[in-house]
Amino acid sequence: MILTKAQYDEIAQCLVSVPPTRQSLRKLKQRFPSQSQATLLSIFSQEYQKHIKRTHAKHHTSEAIESYYQRYLNGVGRNGAAPVLLELANEVDYAPSLMARIILERFLQEHEETPPSKSVINSMLRDPSQIPDGVLANQVYQCIVNDCCYGPLVDCIKHAIGHEHEVLLRDMLLEKNLSFLDEDQLRAKGYDKTPDFILQVPVVMLCPLAVEGHIIHWIESKASFGDECSHHAYLHDQFWSYWNRFGPGLVIYWYGFIQELDCNRERGILLKACFPTDIVTLCHSVA
Amino acid sequence: MAAVLESLLREEVSVAAAVRWIARSAQSSEDDPGEAAALSSLRPLRKEFVPFLLNFLREQSSRVLPQGPPTPAKAPGSSAALPGRPGGPPRGGRGARSQLFPPTELSSAAAAEAPSARRGGRRRGPGPGRERGGRGPGGLEEGVGGESQPWTGGRRSRGAGSPGSPSLVRSDPPNLSNLEEFPPVGSVPPGPAGTKPSRRINPTPVSEERSLSKPKTCFTSPPINCVPSSQPSVLDTSPWGHGLPPGCRSLQEEREMLRKERSKQLQQSPSTTCPTSELGPPLPSWSGNLTAESADPARVSSRQRLELIALVYSSCIAENLVPNLFLELFFVLQLLTARRMVATKDGDLEPSPGAPDSLESPLFQSVHDCVFFAVQVLERQFQVLSYLDKGTLKLLAENERLLCFSPALQGRLRAAYEGSVAKVSLAMPPSAQAVSFQPETDNRANFSSDRAFHTFKKQRDVFFEVLREWEDRHEEPGWDFEKGLGSRIRAMMGQLSAACSHSHFVRLFQKQLLQMCQSPGGTGGTVLGEAPDVLSMLGADKLGRLRRLQERLVAPQSSGGPCPPPTFPGCQGFFRDFILSASSFQFNQHLMDSLSLKIRELNSLALPQPEPSDEDGESDVDWQGERRQFAMVLLSLRLLAKFLGFVAFLPYRGPEPPPTRELQDSILALRSQVPPALDVRALLQQGLRARRAVLTVPWLVEFLSLADHIVPLLDYYRSIFSVLLHLHRSLVLSKESEGEMCFLNKLLLLAVLGWLFQIPTVPEDLFFLEEGQLDALEVDTVASELGLDGMPVVDQHLLYTCCPYIGELRKLLASWVSGSSARSGGFVRKITPTTTTGLGAQPPRTSQGLQAQLAQAFFHNQPPSLRRTVEFVAERIGSNCVKHIKATLVADLVRQAESLLQEQLVTQGQDGGDPAQLLEILCSQLCPHGAQALTQGREFCQKKSPGAVRALLPEETPAAVLSSAENIAVGLATEKACTWLSANITALIRREVKAAVSRTLRAQGPEAAARGERRGCSRACEHHAPLPSHLISEIKDVLSLAVGPRDPEEGVSLDHLEQLLGQLGQTLQCRQFLCPPAEQHLAKCSVDLASLLVADHIPVLGPPSPRGLERGQARRLLHVLLSLWKDDFQVPVPLQLLLSPRNVGLLADTRPREWDLLLFLLRELVEKGLMGRTEIEACLGSLRDAQWPKDFSEELATLFRLFLAEPHMPEPQLRACELVQTNRGTVLAQS
């Protein structure tokens, strides 16, 4: 799903201050029925993450934490079964999972002698059963299952999606008889930067409107939507580094990207939203 | 000097004798005694003759060529306006008339007053032309074009400031005291075609790329010996700057002539500095009158005299007595294309009848004379002309004046043009890719620490980021390298702390430099004229290129005249600026080391051997390859040497030579003890001895071109210049005999040497004064009859690539044709040289023993491709052999090490002891086996090499040759492999075993258990199962619905739940897309789901409204989950969570509480062996510790007792439990 910047902006506009719940997602799908769900979810998630990054600091001042904790305590004091934490998060426009983390951390500070380590917190978020307070455990669990942008479950889903697309891509390469080295093999050889796949024999990808094709030495799979922010970060941390070592290559944003970002083709970084079909291999046969 | 010319003109001395006299210091037996006598009296002047002649010719042509040929870049208009024009075309000079030249009016006047002043004095008077231009922002140039330049020869500055090269002066503020620019009111403004006698017009490069040079300070020849020097020059006593020979000073003729010149000039101009013509006719307006006078052979005055001088001049050119062949050709072509004669006095226009053959009257009295003279010279230079590019030949052949004056020459040129074939092309690899990452040199093993490795990783990225930014932005106006990138570069260099990191970075830098700048396309400048460049640009769609194209079209003149100073065009500029901005001593040192090494390596590379010339077809194919290889090596060497010169002389480079003699002496004393960065003298001598001058000299010239002012004065470099001068003199083009250098090879050397002699830092009088020290050059070339020099390795393309300034000839001719840019594209530049010299023996170059000599001898009579093949095979097989040993012997040893280690771990417990100690034990056992490597390596080479050689050689190779080649290949490969193996096998085994040990020890760690053994998909699986991510997401939705909050109408259908569990089963069976973290989360989610089922917390959709599941439905779903847990999950399922306080607590919220599903689940878990009874008991026990409502605690205790009461759980009892399902009381009662 390749969107123009304008199309993208229209979607992003609708996402301002929308809480990351399944209800929001449902509404978004109704608003943009022509876009694929996965693309919408990816855009939503990225926009929300940008929003959180911008506002993160204000939720972490000691005053804010104290006030949230008091509100939580008051809330569960009134009714422990009510979705106190989730509603608090929505009210102050912060991610439920992250709010759960703040409260949990604060709670543990109060109840344990030593300040909780990060790994303990993470482990409790993954498995709220470990939280010593039953009410808080339920509240945290509720936040986590209701958050569609943050939290251990979401992280796992994202990781799984990335992995699945790498597997898909690998299958396609095998199917096309293109031999490659994957990340693990590259790492074993001591490469300092490792794209998902390096083609052992480069291929040329033909483009409908261009006379010349584009040489591809490496392919990186990205199971997300390529928006400006993430693309620039990827360019800096990954794609240019690959180019610096292996020459021109291909990035597949499986959930689409903003068309205008595909501006480094001549330089040697090509964007696609699917596996290219028009590939020419060294023996000049169309694969 | 004039006396010599006079005696020639009077035919007292023959031209041949005169040239012999000039060329050789000693008299020749061929000389006529009378001639000898006439000349011997003039002996002290011998050295002075050529500079005199050259200056004389320039002098004489001054009225014809005051402003050179019009070029489109040159704005018509009065010269007075031009110097101040701020936006003048950057390279707009007329690109020509170079530098030669006589003193200014002022200085000639001064000279007359102080004739004894040293010739070639360098102080310049306050004459006009103080303006200096062409100071680019580039590093090298900084300070070069400063305001006060006492060291610069007056000649040079005058050239820079002459109105003929307006671009030079564009950026300087107007000099109000300059009478030339601001003449007194009432005087006629001097037109550019005016009488201003300054003819030294330097094509002035004014661009950032031509940094390094002083603006137009290249010189051609010293001025005539009367440049005044009121202050003693520091060079006076230096070996390179002898004073004038005493005889010269008293020479009456010289004075006479000067006086005449001076009076003539004085008559022309009312003031010495404002040479406007009052007496002459009105100046032709340059802008208004571009048409050229037609030249008529019939109207040539004093033919005989012109013929004679042309002959002398040609002979000097032929004998390489002039410093720069192409500069002279350029001058001659200027004469050929002179537009019109500037009239001075009426009398001047008429040949003086009284003394027709003396120097009293002007040599060129009309355009007819100029053209006549030019054609005379060109006729004698036909051979050189015939090697010029096709475009130049075409323009020459089509020149109507040439046709008119010499139809014969025109015919030969036409024939040469038609006969020139484009055959050889340099297929250069495309540039500008990044240097690739090579694990062998770049991976962690090559770094001292993880930190160094990661630092270098980042540096590589920063380097290319900087490079890309430069590519994008360096053409933007106002962009500055240092401002834009300097701090980033220095920050990056600052991180290179370890020496090892420096060497890594330098390797990257040098590789990238070669990759980007080696091919002519990568230089970014016009190399071969516009046409090809424009075409290649049109093919590209990069904005920058289009911009460059636009610039090119706006200002077509590009190359900076026939003697441009050294520049860093295109991408080279990036690397230069990078070095400057980095300003890192360590980096520079490592870079010099690395460049020197690479230069040595390439310089000694075995290049094409003589090939029998009779196998035309095949050898031609081969020759193309040889030439291409030679060209690649040569261009790489030139590039590397240029950068080496740049870095090596960087600390010494200053804007000007030292101002005082004392200072210079002390600098010399200091510098003479500094060893050279690279022993170029030794390499030059080796090159000459091995007859590889054609390879060595061009890069040496590049190196020297970047030297500072002091360098040529140092003994070490002086001797090099001495050798080069001698070489230059010896490259007589007309000599074509056995064992001589090929014509184009010579032409290349003449061109680059000629160019070097014009470099500002090379003392201007060096060329003419250096003589008689030739003994210094004892080059014994007898040893090798035929090196590279005798082979046609240089083709025209390479010549023009190395010396783009030769293309100025074509530009000059083209501008004559149209007066504007009528350059038709499509010049075919490649002519296959017709010279193929005989091939001699190549003596063995190494003495590695008899076998090596025999092998050399064997190759001697074979085609070079055979040798290359054998060397190639040996190199590859040798390398593969090492890899083979690694994959077989070493891998076996590693396996042994692993099993030994396992044993060790079993006997010594999990811990196994200290890893370092373990490693030592293993290595001591295994390393001795490394000895087998040599035997196995030998076998490998023995087995593999012959087949490879056979496959690569032509089938008709005789059997004996083939088997010898095979044996040599086996030998070489074995030698290579065994040398490496014997030195490194132990270390290799050690390294691999070490890696294996740490791998094994890591595998013992806690994560190992989790990995376990995993089943894959069944064979028939088509991987159509739902994706794990999708399932997690779906289950998460169900969980969030169940946990709430939810809208009243929200819920899940039973079908959906069943479908979801079915899909979960499929996904777990198809492992294609499943990764362990995803499976772990699925397991945990399934447990959560079960708990929600048990607690009846899942809102099921259905009429009339969401409600709980029926017991039977719930139990069915739990059954499905139980079987998934038992059969399909491969990761541990956290079943104990079913009994966590939180999940059990879910039951507390339901009323009435229903415990039967939980009990059912627990029994099933035990039944299926998913959990042990004791485990469950422990969980239930800990549940009691939690805080519950009182009634809940009681019920929980009952459940506990109930579960414990049924030790073995047969099926019927399950039913019994079911019977009492809804009645808590009953269940409890049963207990």
UniProtKB/TrEMBL annotation, chain A:
Recorded GO cellular component terms are: cytoplasm; nucleus
Q: Which domain of life is it from?
A: Eukaryota
Report the Pfam families cross-referenced here. Answer: TPD (PF14811)
Q: Which GO terms describe its biological process?
A: erythrocyte differentiation
Give the record's keywords alphabetically.
Cytoplasm, Nucleus
Where does this one sit in the cell? Cytoplasm; Nucleus
Q: Which InterPro entries match?
A: CDIN1
The name this protein goes by in its record: CDAN1-interacting nuclease 1
Automatic annotation (TrEMBL), chain B:
Recorded protein name is Codanin-1
Biased composition, Low complexity: where in the chain? 75-84, 105-118
Q: Which PANTHER family match?
A: CODANIN-1
Q: Which Pfam families match?
A: Codanin-1_C
Segments forming domain Codanin-1 C-terminal: 789-903
Name the gene that codes for it: LOC111161865
Question: What InterPro entries does the record point to?
Answer: Codanin-1, Codanin-1_C
Gly residues bias spans: 135-146
* Ranges where the record places region Disordered: 63-224, 258-291
- Look up the record and give one Gene Ontology term from the biological process aspect: chromatin organization
Residue stretches of biased makeup (Polar residues): 265-276
Organism expressing this protein natively: Enhydra lutris kenyoni
* GO CC aspect terms: nucleus
